Amino acid sequence: TLFDSRAAYRAFVNLIAEAQAVRPTRLLAYCVMPNHWHLVLWTDPDVSLSAFMRWLTSTHVRRYHTFHELVGTGHLYQDRYRNHV
Q: Which tens digit of pLDDT belongs to each residue from 23-42?
């Protein structure tokens, strides 16, 4: 379970907004569930979708591990982001 409280959901949604500020990307839709999430994104040609996803997921992992005092315990996600086009 990634999100076990309203605060955890809210923090992740805020993190998406932070990611958009760092790597400008249009968010068309999102769905955050207890154990995973989905995003529908539309990037500009000069913005890397992979860079956006790398920033979002790596920042989420670091903050999750820090908050839950799990630093150094391993992976949070099963696999890294892949673009299936």
A: 999 999 999 999 999 999 99
